[in-house]
């Protein structure tokens, strides 16, 4: 067992996860509207228990999708920390084992180790070679 490297605080959300954020926000808004709709209409057409239950379920679903996103971000940060920050910020491609600086083979975005490390919040130093 090796002590995991400090999983830093990435500065913001990686580009490839941002699209997911947009979906989560959309889903969250949708669920919010659903709660409003249910509380507005449901009271008349549903029995009280079903009305309360559907509000509770929809509301907690909202929490669930956000914690999923938190988990995904955590996982990506861990992955980046393990490879010394060598994960493409734009698309999430692993840059381990290829040139220290250059162009991502997956998305064509330029990268350099300093920028990647500071973005991922990973401490300096190269990880041990495999
Ligand atoms: Zn890339």
The tally of helices reads 3
Number of domains: 2
The quaternary structure here is single chain
Q: Helices and strands: which structural class?
A: mainly alpha
Contiguous runs where pLDDT drops below 50 for at least 5 residues = 1-6
Which small molecules are bound? zinc ion
Which term fits the overall shape? elongated
Radius of gyration, Cα only, in angstroms? Answer: 21 Å
Give, in order, the helices and strands. HHEEH
Instruction: Give the strand tally.
Output: 2
Strand coverage percent: under 5%
Largest sheet descriptor: 2 strands, antiparallel
What is the terminal separation in angstroms? 16 Å
**Overall residue-averaged pLDDT value:** 85
Report strand order across the widest sheet.
1-2
The percentage helix is 55-70%
Verbal overview:
The chain has 130 residues and is mainly alpha-helical. The protein has 2 domains: 13-82; 84-122, no CATH class. Helix content is 57%, strand content 3%. The protein has 3 helices and 2 strands; from the N terminus they run ααββα. The chain has helices at 15-45, 48-82, 113-120, and strands at 102-103, 110-111. It has a two-stranded antiparallel sheet. A hairpin with a 6-residue loop joins strand 1 (102-103) and strand 2. The structure holds zinc ion. The site of zinc ion has 8 residues, from loops. Zinc ion (ZN) binds at residues 88, 90-91, 93, 104, 106-107, 109.
